[in-house]
Amino acid sequence: MQYVLTGLSVGSVYAMIALGFYVMWSAAKAVNFTYGDVFMLGGVLTVVLVEMGLPLLLAGGGALAIAALAGAVIERVFVRPFNREANAIGWMLTTIAVGIMLESFTTITYGPLGRPLQTPFVEQPIRIGGSGIYPQELILPVALVIVTFALEGFYRRTVLGRAMRAVAFNRVAAGLVGIDADRITLLAFALAGAIGALAGFLIAPVIQASSSMGVVVGLKGFMVAIIAGIANARGVVIVGVVYGVMEKMIEGYLSTAARDAIGFTIMILALLIFPQGLFGRREVQKV
Amino acid sequence: MKQKSWAGWAALFLLAAGIAIFPWVGDFIGQRFPTSYELRLVMRAMILAIVVIGLNLLVGLAGLVSLGQAALYGLGAHVAALLSLRAGFSFAESMVFAIAIPAVMGAILAFPTVRVRGVYLAVVTIAFGLIFVNILREWVGFTGGASGLANLPRPTMFGERLMATRAQSFNYYYLILVCLLIAVWVQYAIANSRYGRAMRAAAQSENAARALGVNVVGIRTLAFAVSAGFAGLGGGLFANLALFVNYETFTFTASVELLLMVILGGSGTMAGPLVGTSVLFTATQFLQGLGQWQTFGYGFLLALVLFVMPKGIVGSLAALRARMMATSRARETGHWPNGEPNFLNNQNGQGDGTGSALIAKGVTLRFGGLTAVNAVDMALKPGTVHALIGPNGAGKSSLLNVISGFYPATEGEVTVFGHRIKNDPPYRLARLGVARSFQNTELFGQMTVLENVLVGAHTHFHASFAETVLRLPRFGREERTSRNDALRLLDFVGLSDFADEEARNLPFGHQRRLEIARALALRPKLLLLDEPAAGLTHAEIEDLIRLIRRLADHGMTVILVEHHVDMIMAVSDRVTVLDYGEVIAEGSPAEIQENPKVIEAYFGHGAPASPNAAQVPA
């Protein structure tokens, strides 16, 4: 029970990161490779803003806005110019470069150690059926559900969301009906930045915000997105949560040290069996 | 071309000679130089260069990115260290495993990931790197954890102790130099062979590569395995040099550093890894002690190089040189078809004179609810030209994609020269003698015209990987024959003068010609042409008609998807008309022209039933 509960909260983070990857991939067929660092920004910036005296929610909102802006800037400067040809790999390298800079710069200015973020929800663990958990950890799955439905609603009901789907489906055709595909892609990256930062903001009180909190989480989020079949939002969420729970199970019944080794191995095996992802449909390539 | 490679070898010779006399410099100038510390630095740079050469094969040729290369390097180091420390293996024995185990690991990581998208490999290699460091750190009993594996026995070979000291001998130094030269050679040998060409082809147009018989997953897996093998070799040499290993040398940052060396030097160039490694390694010696700023510097430098000179140092210099040497000599376009395609004669489908080249029975293709091709029956006699026509969206290209293996048929079966295809991938069909062109030309843009045609001949090479790397006679024979055939093909389509031009620089009409020449290099028995006349001028279409006729006269079977009615009338023996995925008419061109159903399909009800009207659709 304990494992399921904490797994749910960790899994929600993976799922949100994976959703961010899904949003970026749909729009650009490229992603911010070091998206984990945007997630990290969400946590770290909140701490910094709170320390500067801002109230918690305002600080969180500020961090979200900055991260969204960072997402947009990364798309405009580091992804778009390097994603012009099919099969381009330039964007991979440039976004990795940005990630390295972001992370090491944070380490230098903010310090290598994590700092706590106080919220009313981490003062007292509550007990559910004999297992203790911070209310903050329970917020995460709730937030995930809200984000997932909000995203779905956004994609289906708003003009902008529909435009994003159109761009995802066929960039050229979307351009022909008057959609500015470049602008849509920019907004998609900003949206992904906000989602990532939200996850960082929500998990920071539980794990302490540090400059290195993003790398592994970002990687796992990407793996989750790939395993789910990167073009399926619901699949991404399900796999993320399941992976989180599985990870906690491994931690609980085997060892913490073996967690990532076993987790990644399982993911690689899953990819071997389902090359298109668990929920991915075989892509029909236009020949 | 010849001259350039000569200069390259001369430069390499000078470099090798320079490294070779470096330990003795002190004797000439009468000082204690180089010290053993400086010697170690040179040896470490050489080892890194070996690893970087491996990574260059992956990034520069196969267009894939590995961000766990340092972990494979570390795997080699740990295999060598553990085997000599725990199992008492000799130096040579442990080195074999230090190369083989990372290579196998590379294949295991690559195979599941490169099937879908190359990007996945980058993700999986990062994961591998993290796990690797994680295991080394946690599994203290086996790997020593943070204190690592120390006190490795000094390596010996043929009873000689391998070392690099002034007092005794420099033999380990020279062993590393030899390994580096071997690495340079292997890189050159792979790049200039069908393997290297196939890697580049798969990176530049996956579909075209598959259609020409390249097993894309196989060639990418090979690329990563070789690259990992180089990393392992470097690792083994490193472990036996330092006589101490722990995980700190092989982190993610180290992987980025290796990648940076490739990009900085110029990915895909032969000299790039050597230049990139030297420059960055030297720079690093000055930047040490900067801690996190050093990591930041790597990120900054990587971004800077990508923005300012994405081709790297060597690539940029080569481009500059090419611009200065450009004589803008006018190239002459030959007329085509030029001569008879006698040289294409193999068993051109004449084998079973009575049989059909292609039989389709009830072929159906559905995408979700949409039926693109519906219960199509077709039979083609060998040596005929068969046209597939129909209004837009009638399913012509879809049918072509089923025949060439790009889409598996939902129902029904296709038999090509007696071989029933069910789920055969395109590359296997190519090996049966099915070649195709693409509606939107899919050339390998950054390869030369000649190289494009040579990729077409991929399936006719039989020299194994070992034969290729060692340049054994069979490799040379095949390479010469294919080159001659390719030149004759270029002559046949009138592009001889463009042989060393990059394909993307060709004008559109020439690109079409090249695509046909490339398909012919496969020496196909069945040639599928998807709208080959689209975008060609009137005169070019006349030439194309003669070319297709000439191929058919030599026994080749041709399926032609076209809108151009004049061309179809002039060139085809039989015509099949598709509408909404179904065959609505089949017959000789003249019969089709009179067929009211065909006229209706194009013009709807009540169209004038005159034969002339059918000539308008385009």
Account of the protein in words:
The complex is a heterodimer of chains A (287) and B (618). Chain A has one domain (2-114, 128-273): Orthogonal Bundle (ABC transporter involved in vitamin B12 uptake, BtuC), CATH 1.10.3470. Helix content of chain A is 72%, strand content 2%. Chain A has eleven helices and two strands. In chain A, strands 1-2 form a two-stranded antiparallel sheet. In chain A, a hairpin with a 2-residue loop joins strand 1 and strand 2. Chain A starts with a helix and ends in a 14-residue tail after the last helix. The mean pLDDT of chain A is 87. By secondary structure, chain B is α/β, with parallel strands linked by helices. Among the domains of chain B are: 43-251, no CATH class; 342-442 and 526-615, P-loop containing nucleotide triphosphate hydrolases (Rossmann fold, 3-Layer(aba) Sandwich). In chain B, helix 22 links the parallel strand 9 (526-530) and strand 10. The relative contact order of chain B is 0.10. The chains are: A mainly alpha (287), B alpha/beta (618). At the A-B interface, helix 4, helix 9 and helix 11 of A face helix 5, helix 6, helix 12 and helix 14 of B.
Q: For the report, how would you describe the main beta sheet of chain A?
A: 2 strands, antiparallel
Radius of gyration of chain A: 19 Å
Radius of gyration of chain B: 29 Å
Strand order of the largest sheet of chain B: 8-9-10-5-11-12
Strand content of chain B: 5-15%
Number of domains of chain A: 1
- Arithmetic mean pLDDT of chain B: 87
Shape of chain B: elongated
User: Could you name the ranges of chain A where pLDDT drops below 50 across 5 or more consecutive residues?
Assistant: none
The appropriate CATH architecture of chain A is: Orthogonal Bundle
- Count all strands of chain B and give the number: 12
Number of helices of chain B: 25
Q: What structural class is derived from the secondary structure elements of chain A?
A: mainly alpha
Structural class of chain B: alpha/beta
**In terms of quaternary structure, what is this?**
heterodimer
Helix content of chain B: 55-70%
* C-alpha end-to-end distance of chain B: 44 Å
